[in-house]
Amino acid sequence: MTAKPPRQAIALTYDGVNTPSLSAKGDDELAEAILAIAREHEVPIYENAELVKLLARLELGDAIPEALYRTIAEIIAFAWYLKGKCPPGFEQQAEPSLPLLGGPES
Fold it and tell me: Of 27, 36, 38, 78, which residue is most buried, by most CB within 10 angstroms?
């Protein structure tokens, strides 16, 4: 029997000006605590095990790597859309222009 890999979670901080950075990461119980805090504050949760593995390599406070800018930008844009937010100078559209991104559940 193979051992089930630990559940992982990461959280990113983005202020709208600087590159998003890693603000939390953890496995198992800490991952569940990160997810609980996100739910409590109505932060959209995006599940993608491969992306979490890549970002979990970073240290807390590290900016996301340039190679992931577009991927993270699309996720942030969709999360903002879900919250009814948009960057200054942009108008909110009636329908999302980004596809719903998905991935395997972790």
Answer: 78
Q: For residue 101, is pLDDT > 60?
A: no
| CATH number for 32 | 3.40.1690.10
**Per-residue pLDDT tens digits for 76-93:** 988 888 888 876 766 655
The 8 Å CB, 24+ separation contacts for 81-88 are: 82/44, 83/42, 83/44, 87/16
**Residue 22: which domain range?**
8-82
Identify whether 44 is part of a domain. yes
As given in the structure block, the two tokens for residue 79 are 């999360």
Number of Cβ within 10 Å of residue 82's Cβ equals: 13
Taking the model in full, what pTM does it have?
A: 0.73
**Domain presence at residue 33:** yes
Cα–Cα distance, 25 to 3 (Å, whole number): 21
Q: Is residue 106 part of a domain?
A: no
